[in-house]
Amino acid sequence: FQKALVKAVLIDNKFQIEGFPTVCLIPQVKNVFEQEGFSRQKRGYRNINDIEVNMSDPLFTKQWYLINTGQADGTPGLDLNVAEAWQLGYTGKGVTIAIMDDGIDYLHPDLASNYNADASYDFSSNDPFPFPRYTDDWFNSHGTRCAGEVSAAANNNICGVGVAYNSKVAGIRMLDQPFMTDIIEASSISHMPQVIDIYSASWGPTDDGKTVDGPRELTLQAMADGVNKGRGGKGSIYVWASGDGGSYDDCNCDGYASSMWTISINSAINDGRTALYDESCSSTLASTFSNGRKRNPEAGVATTDLYGNCTLRHSGTSAAAPEAAGVFALALEANPNLTWRDMQHLSVLTSKRNQLHDEVHQWRRNGVGLEFNHLFGYGVLDAGGMVKMAKEWKTVPERFHCVAGSVQEPHKIQSGNKLVLAIDTEACQGKDNFVRYLEHVQAVVTVNASRRGDLNINMTSPMGTKSILLSRRPRDDDSKVGFDKWPFMTTHTWGEDPRGTWVLEVGFQGEEPQRGVLKEWTLMLHGTQSAPYIDQIVRDYQSKLAMSKKEELEEELDEAVERSLKSLLSKNN
């Protein structure tokens, strides 16, 4: 009976078993309940129709970076979480974003209603009409595509939807001339800083793996004025694409992306992997999305294109920076009083690892428990999380700068031997410019090498956080210029206490033996004297560590008891 496959019918709490003439009483059965079927679903999977965001725009369902339900073989849930921000009522209203690029097709029907003509200008042709110059190959479509990611109108049956679809977009045409000048860059970056809130830049020095370049004097001054005086003193927000040089390049060699005054944004593809063109560096703050690796035509970024067209093929970190600008526009609508530094703090605190994975660099936690990655920064921007935190955010305390120490005497570097230098600092404690909680850290380095591209520079903070300041760049053959007072920057020590010993390690990677001389290392600390939220993060982190250590000890104790019991049993046997 126990092994047979039988059918039974319940009659008055007794079983009538098929094939048996009488009703059988089974004393072991105390109660009988009829089982009803109900639903269970795999967590993480989202159907776009189940999310209460209804858009008539034909490309909306293909904009996986907004709401990722697994389109184009992507990873469900891996997106900017804009749906939550939109459902809270934030769509970028009252915020103006400038696209500094090759112009904007402001006649495009998906952009025209959100175009801010008064804040736009053409610095390539010196007129107020930044329309892209025509080419047969549509080479100047870059700015129009970026503009659509930010401010494409919603529910108009055209193309897709912008991250901040009720924001205003300004066109600053400044890339389309035979060569760049300092005055064109400076004029663009400082154009109407009381009207424009966010400047999005998807350009920089050549991503050839051998260029070391950054802003010149006028542009540096314009950026400094922007963060200090823009937006009525709250500071212009500069969003920068980290670069498309891939593993051959390092974005710390790009003086725009590695500037403290910019928010450097990298990209991930729709399944959470790095794009092959992604550059890594310690100055990257956060990430958004672009395409790469996948051949699926819908794995690219869907947005507006020239002459009223739409595209599914926008790509590169060029696509990543405007997405970030859109998220920041949502945060500014939630709290117009946010400063440029507030936006950086919010990016650090609300960005998430989500399902991003880097095959080369592991995710780590810094000295106060903030999780970061050398390529993705603090993770992917979370629009919903950012607007919720922005609503209640109190402006961060005053920022201070401290020259923590300097090594000025020359030190030789040779292949096979790492040069290790240390600076002990009190971070200007006892002075007006004391830095207790870090934001940005700069290692200003002067170094020459027989092959600059083989140089590798790491720096470790007193709290044990290691930042890779410079990775090997195999295409960089420079043997003369080197780095001259170059400010390598890291954001990975955010929130840490800088007091103690900082260690710089300089060496060579590569097959051929190299030699060099480090002539200077100056440590610059930037941060605040108070940051209450950091103290809470530290307490939470220490609590988690204590709990995990307790669990480890309990596991060790269990294993020890088990070993002892096994030993006793074997002796008794």
UniProtKB/TrEMBL annotation:
Q: Which gene encodes it?
A: pcsk2
What are the coiled-coil residue ranges?
none
Job of this protein: Serine endopeptidase which is involved in the processing of hormone and other protein precursors at sites comprised of pairs of basic amino acid residues. Responsible for the release of glucagon from proglucagon in pancreatic A cells.
The family database entries (InterPro entries) matched by this protein are listed as: Galactose-bd-like_sf, Kexin/furin, P_dom, Peptidase_S8/S53_dom, Peptidase_S8/S53_dom_sf, Peptidase_S8_Asp-AS, Peptidase_S8_His-AS, Peptidase_S8_Ser-AS
Q: What is its main location?
A: secreted
The answer to whether the entry has keyword Signal is yes
The EC category is: hydrolase
Q: Name one GO cellular component term.
A: membrane
What EC number(s) does this enzyme carry?
3.4.21.94
GO terms in the biological process aspect are: peptide hormone processing
* Active site, per annotation: 101 (charge relay system), 142 (charge relay system), 318 (charge relay system)
Q: Name one GO molecular function term.
A: serine-type endopeptidase activity
Q: Where is the P/Homo B domain?
A: 395-531
Superkingdom of origin organism: Eukaryota
Identification of the protein by name? Neuroendocrine convertase 2
Keywords annotated in UniProt: Cleavage on pair of basic residues, Disulfide bond, Glycoprotein, Hydrolase, Protease, Secreted, Serine protease, Signal, Zymogen
Q: What does the record give as the reaction this protein catalyses?
A: Release of protein hormones and neuropeptides from their precursors, generally by hydrolysis of -Lys-Arg-|- bonds
Family label: Belongs to the peptidase S8 family. Furin subfamily.
Subcellular location(s): the record lists: Secreted
